[in-house]
Amino acid sequence: MTRLEALCADAWPAVVDRPLGAWRLRAADGFTGRANSALAIGDPGMPVPAALDAVRAFAREHGIRARVHVPVGSPWDKAVAAEGWGLDVAHERGAEVAVLVAPLRGTLDPRVELPERPSDGWWRLALGALPTAAQRHVLDPGGDPRTAFGQITGPDGTVIGSVRATVVEDHLHVSVLEVAPAARRQGLATVLLASAAEWGREHGARWAVLQVALHNTGAVALYDRLGYVEHHQYRYLVPPAG
């Protein structure tokens, strides 16, 4: 669990990633919970109350909400909750997340391009606009051959499907899976995932890993059909009001 959380964090790099013992204080101008939270996966090197004070100070420094990312049921989940921190119910993308894994099995589809850099069309489908500096840092820190930005283009040249795939050690981290509304229910998400899996296998990965909010039942069902299984869950905890 600890290793997998660290691999996922490396695949989704925050603008600032500061160690606090075995914790990682992360900030990226508010773009995603993963990149704007303290990843608690080991001993912070100080009592937990002091570590949480450091989390608050880091959040103030970077203008983000104080938030701790903890694997559910871990010692750090229990220790942070014991200090009165509770579920971040205001986190619109979902405060409770499943980490899913699967062996890499796939086939490259000729419709899927897998360049090392995202096109403007990829950005527009994935984010709805061209990226901010923080978004670019997290998703495309710069021509890394271990990352592919899969896309499918429609007849008019518009990107209608996108996926981000990053190899970290022996895992392929899959993220940003999007299909344009008009192109849904045509199996394009499955095609994108299969092509990303084969690309990852060719680049030395053996397993796929992805993170999906528990409330995103449609995505959970898709991944279940494709053979992904839950490895563990994590959740975001925030300080008590006041």
Q: Which percent range describes the beta-strand content?
A: 25-35%
CATH architecture group name of the largest domain: 3-Layer(aba) Sandwich
The biggest beta sheet reads: 12 strands, mixed
Mean pLDDT: 96
- Counting H and I runs of at least 4 residues, what is the number of helices? 7
**Quick one: overall form?**
globular
Spell the H/E element sequence. HEEEHEHEEEHHEEEHEHE
The CATH homologous superfamily of the largest domain is named Gcn5-related N-acetyltransferase (GNAT)
Q: Helix content range of the residues, please?
A: 25-40%
Write up this protein.
The chain has two domains: 2-96, no CATH class; 105-205, Aminopeptidase, CATH 3.40.630.30. Strands 1, 2, 3, 4, 5, 6, 7, 8, 9, 10, 11 and 12 form a twelve-stranded mixed beta sheet that branches. The mean pLDDT is 96. The protein has helices spanning 2-11, 48-62, 75-82, 120-127, 133-139, 188-202, 217-225; strands spanning 16-20, 23-27, 38-39, 68-71, 86-87, 96-103, 112-113, 147-153, 159-168, 171-179, 207-213, 229-238. It has seven helices and twelve strands. It is of the alpha+beta class. α2 links the parallel β3 (38-39) and β4 (68-71).
Topology at a glance:
Blueprint (H helix, E strand, L loop, with lengths): L1 H10 L4 E5 L2 E5 L10 E2 L8 H15 L5 E4 L3 H8 L3 E2 L8 E8 L8 E2 L6 H8 L5 H7 L7 E7 L5 E10 L2 E9 L8 H15 L4 E7 L3 H9 L3 E10 L4
Parallel strand pairs: 3-4, 10-11
Antiparallel strand pairs: 1-2, 2-3, 4-12, 5-12, 6-11, 6-12, 7-8, 8-9, 9-10
Could you provide a short overview of the structure?
The protein has helices spanning 2-11, 48-62, 75-82, 120-127, 133-139, 188-202, 217-225; strands at 16-20, 23-27, 38-39, 68-71, 86-87, 96-103, 112-113, 147-153, 159-168, 171-179, 207-213, 229-238.
